Amino acid sequence: MTDIVTDDVAALRRAFTLYPRGVMAVAAQIDGAPVGLAVSAFVSVSLDPPLLALCIDAASRTWPVLSTADTIGVSVLTEDHAWLGRQLASRSRDRFAGADFDETSRGALLLTGAAARFECSTETVFPGGDHLIVLLRVLSLSADPARKPLLWHDSEFRAVAPLTPLP
Question: Cα angle at 137 between 139 and 57, to 5 degrees?
Answer without folding.
Answer: 125
